[in-house]
Amino acid sequence: QSVLTQPPSVSGAPGQRVTISCxxxxxxxGAGYDVHWYQQLxxxxxxxxxxxxxxxxxxxxxxxxxxxxxxSASLAITGLQAEDEADYYCQSYDSSLxxxxxGTKLTVL
Amino acid sequence: xxxxxxxxxxLVQPGRxxxxxxxxxxxxxxxxxxxxxxxxxxxxxxxVSGISWNSGTIVYADSVKGRFTISRDxxxxxxxxxxxxxxxxxxALYYCATSIxxxxxxxxxxxxxxxxxxxx
Lengths: 109, 120
What we know:
The complex is a heterodimer. Chain A contains no helices and 9 strands.
């Protein structure tokens, strides 16, 4: 059981908007710790997608955005594309140790 | 270009030891903290251990504390993970990853991983 809770799967049609939630508690996200998001394409290593809850590294399209409120965070993807089909993981901190969400599989219909 | 290349994985019996290595290039190695993150087959990501740029701060996940030892050699641009008393539940793809500081910072770059299988 992961410390951070994500839905196992989400789906959307090309061009649509989807969101992935990451729910924590007062000892991690609610304590003010940043949330980072990673994208893992099939058969590849994870890649940093969003850092500091809302920031995109250079090269990440602005179709990807992050937000955080209270004990939860969200990743939004607009203008869904076939190449967005991947696993997405949130990551934060709990008792100063790094914790991941269980991951969400995004299917582009 | 940042490159992280893990090696040392393989099949090992329960209770035995294994040492993983991660060779880094394309960036100033001793400017970064380094980590090991693992992924069991078909499962999610699990952070294992992290080490600061000068080895002054070392942290472990509870699941490996007392069995695994992380270390680095800045002269060789290399990161290591000594894994002792291995268990079947340690079976996973082990990634090395960078972060600007050991405690509060994202994993900026990842290697492609090395597979560890613990089985009799």
